[in-house]
Amino acid sequence: MNATANPNPNGNPSPTPNPVPPPPPGLNPNPSPNGAAGTALAIGAAVPRADGPAKVTGAARYTADIGLPDLAQAVLVQSTIAKGRITAMDTVAAESAPGVLAVFVPGGPLRMAPVASFYSADNGPMGDARAPLSDELVHHYGQHVAVVVARTLVQATAAAELLRIDYAEEAPRTSVDDVSALTPPGRDDIVRGDFAAGLAAADVRVDAQYSTPGQHMNAMEPCATLAHWSHDGDLTVHDSTQDVGAVRTALATAFRLPRERVRVISEFVGGGFGSKGTVWPHVLLTAAAAKHLGQPVRLSLTRPQMFTSCGNRPATRQRFVLAARRDGVLTAIAHDSVTPTSVGEDVVESTGGVTTMLYACPNITVRQRIARLDMPPPTFQRAPGRAPGSFALESALDELAHELGLDPVELRIRNHADTDPTSGHPWSGKHLLDCYRIGAERFGWDAYDAAPGSRREGDLLIGRGMATATHQMDQNQSAARAELRSDGTAVVSVASHDIGTGTYTVLGQIAADALGLPFDRVTVRLGDTGYPQAPASIGSQTVAYVGPAVRRACEAVRDDLLARAVADPDSPLHRRPLADIVLGPELVADELDRIGALSISAIGHHRPESELPYAVHSFGAHFAEVAVDSGTGTVRVRRMVGVFDIGRVVNPRTARSQLIGGMTFGISQALMEHTVVDPLRGHVVEPHFAGYHIPTNADIGELAVHFVDAPDPHISDLGARGAGEIGVVGSAAAVANAVFHATGKRLRDLPLTPDKLLAD
Amino acid sequence: MPEATDEPGKEPRAQPGHGGEGTADVDGDVEVEVEMLVNGETHTMRVDPRVTLLDALREHVGLTGPKKGCDLGQCGACTVLLDRRRVTSCLTFAVMHRGREVTTIEGLVGPDGALHPMQQAFVDHDAFQCGFCTPGQIMSAVALTDEGHAGGPDEIREWMSGNLCRCAAYPNILDAVIAATAGTAGSAAAPTTTTTTRER
Amino acid sequence: MRSFTYARPHDLTQLWREHGPDAAYIAGGTNLVDLMKCGVATPQRVVDIGALPLGGIELDGDKLHVGALATNSDLAAHPLVVRHLPMLAQALLSGASPQLRNLATLGGNLMQRTRCGYFRDIAMPCNKREPGAGCAAMDGSHHGHAVLGTSEHCIATHPSDLAVALVALDAQVSVAGPNGARVVPADAFHLPPGDRPDRETQLAAGELILGVAIPLEAAGAHSCYVKVRERASYAFALASAAVGLDVRDGTIRDARVALGGVATTPWRARAAERVLVGSAPGPAVFGRAADAAAEGARPLRDNAYKVELIRRVVTRALTTLPDAPPPAAPGPLSGEPT
């Protein structure tokens, strides 16, 4: 199977190094006529990535790799103050610089209709609803204040440096700890039971403050947009996005176009992690500049601009009160959080999301407040709310276990929620206890002395830590198209994305089984608004909801083909029972030849029940071993075991990669990642990879992933939930808990850098 | 962008070593002629001296395999081989490398389209997700093998640490490098003893 | 980036002719190109010294002569460096990444400029970029800034690992300009900020580093470099220490201690050396030396941890040194790999 945009240089995917395992029992509740004799089902097989050959040869074209004749290059100029207004702009030097085609400034010719924010009541497509270059006001450092377009990138960059801008500057609010920035309380509170009564019933209490820093997604591919207007006013945009549909909505709204006149293409995306999940103002600016100039324009954010222009994970300040009986059973939880948002957007980092559902506690109070700062708008970053929230909750659980002298795994088992504490519904599928058991066994949890500071190897202090993982699935719908072709192949197309998630591969597997074709006869096409609509590639939802839509489409086109065949006296399949028919490339080719069609196609839909009487969550458990250098304060995660219950695993190879990536996100959150903001000036200090550390290969030890491969019978007939985010949740807490076990030092402020380890 | 202009004889070849070289382009910027052997083919282009090796490859030669992840030498996505040694192509000007040999990810593929063993190993071990850092990772991995730095997991991790991967395929990258170097043991095995002592 | 003209001279005579006001030398480019992209360096003329014959690494008597164009990779892998100057090899390999070390040169590394985020951001006031403009790091973010050698005008950390080893090894820097050549001790090559943080080295306008001469001595052979950073690789030092000891008959005869990541220049900790010399090696004297190394540190709000980290990294380096006697002084054939 090939990713359609890029021909596989080998002609065929490489053979799977591991033999294809037998399908898990109950795999295909709606068995399709199987393909060529002996063809194993693709679902559940560790199929190599379909787009692998394109990605290892440089043939995969990301947005910034796409060229067009007469393509102009745009560069953003950004504010160098955090709050105030522009008092003067001198564009003369920039406009007269070599190669410059235009310099666009606030109040200039670029005009756009307003487009709603994702965070507004309208639930629009924008991450930042403020129309770019709309006025002279500055709301955060790094706000776009001009766009320079030139023939070449060198020229545009040089001209951008010639712009002279004067500001009237005001003192910005930059800290989440600034109480004057707090918005009124109460609107996001969740109160269940009676906290005071639960507290009174407790024998033991943990009361602790945790904090996590601001983070930036820093996908390796900087955001890029290429916009091209046709002579009759149709707009085509290539964009690095997790949601081509949202980009189309934003552009159609901004330029007052019917949606069908806007086409958005995103065949390869170099990672997103949320930074490409909403539409950012530079996308609109690129299209507006191309329209004004009458020629195609490409704009890439620079790495430093990625720190101001496409969202961030806000810092958190969290206080936990856990109250429990002597046997460890929780009687009350209070979780208070403050997270920052921007002037224009009300973004709540929902740290309390895990608190309300992860453990069976009758008395829970969760309060969230936001502080309005003169900073760029935050947005959802991989495992929003749950990543920082689980760090605090799972650290507090570890503190409670220590207080009680109880094993941390046992404490969690004693508080296991057998039904969803939030809704009261049964779980659609929950195997968390298996995760604990399997993880503890594989990790060798019991081989450690429970006492902190009890294992030493020379200068190294060795510790173990664990935490629970969870992810909530929000129900969503999708469509997809399947086409059978007279050469015995099939094409599946859907406006979803492969942001590294393996979508090209897993949808091909699902289609192959539904069509009864070998995997390599199916081509998957993604990332184009010309295809049937899919949800954004956020929230770990692509396999869960696009997968069933693909299956429906494939079944529909297969059934169409077979219905025609059995009804047609000229077909060798006339009146054959469907169950006796062996589908395969030859049958597809023969039947389409016979009816004289080059292809037939069908659209399939996944429309989940709106009132599902089940709570749909994934679960898991992390176990980490750290080595803390007692001399230098450096921490290394030597090994980590993650066990995950994510429903059916369509492709254990790509799913494992996602979970390794998620666990590493957590290790990174625990040990190094933090955005440094100048407290007075409100800018990100050192906005690049030398200032903002993400792990290198040398930082990562042995990571093991294990799946409890239990299809979820209620989410869909595919039974798959998602793998994108759950790896992050709890990972940082497992590491921090291991640091406590290694050193006896409880650190509640991430990241755990040497300065904190060495502090008294 | 146009393909590389390869018109020997039509433009006077700039003489290295002389000041004030180059001629003004249509915009008045100075351009210089640069000839490089890229993936076995000679490319001659006229570039502004400010054009980095990375942008020359991407915008002038038309090879978009090398990626711009940071443009500051901090991520390794732009890694190419320059005279067979790996370099960050974003932090050096194209004009500085006249007459030199450049290999990009596109140049690893055999004339028959066959993948380089390292490319195949990356596919086999799922050593990437989004794929954006992958060309740089593979160029580093190929160089690492030639350098003799594939002596063991920790050495490979350290010598692959100039290539960031936000998807964090690191364990799989490690496996891919081990597998590929095992397949070419003749070139990789011998030097490892000395390099292990070098790495502290 | 500002437009510039480009020249690539092939000898020093041509070089002096090409150089002039607003010109910058370039070798690998890893620092200069970076600073030009930031707008910190704005040369009108870039003089590529890559064609000059300055790449050699040669033994001359009891000194190793390293040309300014020797790459960090080649120097780190050179058998004489591996065998006789382990702190130098380790310092080099702890810096940057393999693909940067293949471009970066000895001369460029010595001329490397600070990583201070305010220095690199031309929208911010910085006395190093513009004397008298003020220092934004003092009241801003200075978690990574220097605690030694600072002034009220500048607290920017010198970022080099290599230079720390050269300072410890008593290297001599050869420089030349249109008016002649001279030699500057590595320890004096970099200037503390004082009231002119913009003046970073002893190089006069137009002068070029030709190379360094590194004496091969017992304390250099029995040496190591330890670097503490916030991730395992590819990161600048929070603190680093280059140490070397010449121990004979149970007594430390010669000691070298230099620090990186904590000072405004590659920092020779002579107070620590004085503690060590004449004593028998051991935990107690190592601890006193570590304390001495941190003497005079002047931390600010967010970088006080570095004072303790200096003690930790010096102690670690001293205790990491292998007990085995150093290899014999190099003879004519001792450059062979072991």
Automatic annotation (TrEMBL), chain A:
Coiled coil: none
Taxonomy, superkingdom: Bacteria
Classification via SMART domains: Ald_Xan_dh_C (SM01008)
Domain Aldehyde oxidase/xanthine dehydrogenase a/b hammerhead positions: 57-171
Alphabetically ordered keywords of this record: Molybdenum, Oxidoreductase
InterPro entries: Ald_Oxase/Xan_DH_a/b, Ald_Oxase/Xan_DH_a/b_sf, Ald_Oxase/xanthine_DH-like, AldOxase/xan_DH_MoCoBD1, AldOxase/xan_DH_MoCoBD2, AldOxase/xan_DH_Mopterin-bd_sf
Pro residues bias (residue ranges): 10-32
Pfam families (alphabetical): Ald_Xan_dh_C (PF01315), MoCoBD_1 (PF02738), MoCoBD_2 (PF20256)
Location of the region described as Disordered in the Swiss-Prot/TrEMBL record: 1-37
Identification of the protein by name: Xanthine dehydrogenase family protein molybdopterin-binding subunit
UniProtKB/TrEMBL annotation, chain C:
Entry keyword Iron: no
Keyword Cytoplasm attributed: no
InterPro entries per record: CO_DH_flav_C (IPR005107), CO_DH_flav_C_dom_sf (IPR036683), Diverse_Substr_Oxidored (IPR051312), FAD-bd_PCMH (IPR016166), FAD-bd_PCMH-like_sf (IPR036318), FAD-bd_PCMH_sub1 (IPR016167), FAD-bd_PCMH_sub2 (IPR016169), Mopterin_DH_FAD-bd (IPR002346)
UniProt keyword annotations, A-Z: Oxidoreductase
SMART domains per UniProt: CO_deh_flav_C
Pfam short name (any one): CO_deh_flav_C
Listed name of the protein: Xanthine dehydrogenase family protein subunit M
Organism: Streptodolium elevatio
